[in-house]
Amino acid sequence: MLTKEENDALTQVGPGTPMGDVLRHYWYPVVMTRELNEFPIKQIRLLGENWAVFRTEEGNYGIVDERCPHRGASLVYGIVENDGLRCGYHGWKFDTDGQCVDILAEPDSSPKFREGCGVRSGSAQELGGMVWVYVGDGPVPELPRYEAYVMDGVRDIGHSMLPCNWLQIMENAVDPYHVEALHGNYFEFIAKWKNIPMPSAFGGNKHERVAFDPFEHGIIKRRLLVGQDEESDDWKIGHPLVFPYKMWVGGNGVFQMQIRVPVDDTHTYMIFYTVHAPEGGEIPENPPCIDYEYEWIEPDGTYIVDYIEGQDIMAWVTQGEIADRVNEKITKSDVGVIACRRMFKEQIDAVAEGRDPIAVMREPHDVIKLPLERSKFGRGAEFATEWIDNGSMKYSPQAEFMKKLHMDAQAARNELAGS
Question: Where in the chain is the domain with CATH 3.90.380?
Answer without folding.
Answer: 147-418
